[in-house]
Write a structure and sequence with these properties.
This protein has 324 residues and is α/β, with parallel strands linked by helices. It contains 6 helices and 20 strands. The protein binds flavin-adenine dinucleotide.
């Protein structure tokens, strides 16, 4: 019996799991190397109904993550959790990969190809930490950046003034969720709003009903403590300045690809990126032969479950055409 070629997948989100399943069905031996202690990636953080995956209209993203995880666990695909990538080198057979499995043991794999599926994460405190007056004490328990972290707080927002930073879909969805609860909402964005038409129209209605104030082309120039609140100095143009006094700030300023680890390896440093997102061709090949990238780590424009699932399949099929 011929030996099945091993393919390593970095990242066990939906893209990595989809690719692993396709590779297995196509006759390979996929292994998933996941930084965290569970599979599912961003989906595991989202308790809301996911309306975008055909056939699963009643499922939350967390339930989708659980269903995908169960599927992988029902196979013999090996998953290494909380691993550390120690080295990766190219050789005549493909690549040699060394990982730290746990405090005591290392493992070396001879792999034919590497799939990078490390996803993306919400931009966090880095948006505000260089603003004059920022201190960790000032923002303690009052600034949040995970896309659904306002949901648990909704019951307590009724007398509060809220600032939401960002002008994209997530900022709009958060503003809509909070609109019927908070006393005042300020939606603050550096340029103008870029959101899907439906949610944008909802926000325009809220603005017209005086339930929300939008500050476009605005920058926060300083932050300061003000009794129990955070004071924000806002500049809209050189002549238009104002101050706001807010109880909480929700940061909704987009996402960042998880590609920092590329810099720890001479080989992976050569993977081409644009603004930290990995560049690929139409079948998800990077500029380095044998290295593919799939899912949100390659996709700043259309991140979604179905794109991540499909990209896993695309990469697996291309690999099977070239390696089998
Ligand atoms: C608030 C929000 C709402 C969303 N709503 C929807 C929706 O309704 N419908 C929809 O289709 N999509 C939605 N999405 C997008 C969807 O969740 C993502 O497109 C999808 O989960 C991306 O999957 P992924 O596998 O590419 O990346 P991720 O889910 O980010 O998974 C990447 C995995 O790689 C791991 N990892 C990171 N670095 C390393 C490393 N160095 N080595 C190994 N592993 C690593 C991570 O721990 C993670 O498990 C939403 C996203 C957010 C944030």
């Amino acid at each position: 019996m011929s030996v099945q070629p091993t393919i390593a997948i970095l990242g066990g989100g939906v893209a990595g799991m989809s690719c692993a399943l396709w590779l297995k069905n196509l006759g390979f031996k996929p292994i998933i190397l996941e930084k965290n202690t569970c599979l599912g990636g961003q989906l595991t953080t989202l308790p809301t109904i996911n309306r975008w995956v055909l056939g699963f209209s009643e499922h939350t993203s967390q339930q989708l993550a659980a269903a995908y995880t169960k599927h992988i666990q029902s196979t013999d695909i090996s998953v290494y959790y909380s691993y550390q990538l120690l080295a990766i080198q190219q050789n005549s057979h493909g690549f040699q990969l060394v990982i730290q499995k746990n405090a005591l043991s290392r493992e070396t794999f001879s792999i034919k190809a590497l799939i990078i599926a490390t996803g993306a994460r919400p931009v966090g405190y880095e948006v505000i930490e260089n603003i004059e007056g920022f201190t960790p004490e000032l923002i303690s328990n009052r600034v949040f950046f995970l896309p659904t972290d306002h949901l648990e707080q909704l019951p307590h927002l009724s007398t509060k003034t809220i600032a939401i930073l960002g002008g994209g879909d997530n900022a709009h969805y958060t503003a809509k969720d909070i609109a019927t609860r908070a006393d005042k909402i300020h939606l603050i964005m550096r340029s103008s709003a870029i959101a899907q038409t439906l949610i944008r129209n909802d926000i325009i209605t809220l603005i017209q009903e005086n339930k929300l104030i939008e500050h476009s082309h605005s920058t926060i120039t300083s932050m300061y403590a003000e009794q129990n609140k955070i004071g924000l100095a806002l500049t809209q143009s050189p002549s238009l300045r104002q101050t706001l006094s807010v109880d909480k700030i929700f940061i909704r300023c987009g996402f960042k690809a998880n590609t920092e680890f590329l810099q720890n390896s001479e080989l992976l440093k050569r993977v081409a990126t644009n603004q930290n997102y990995i560049l690929t061709d139409h079948v998800k090949r990077t500029n380095i032969p044998g290295i593919y990238a799939i899912g949100d780590v390659t996709n700043s424009d259309d991140p979604s479950v179905v794109n991540a699932l499909a990209e896993g399949a695309l990469a697996a099929r291309d690999l099977s055409q070239h390696l089998n």
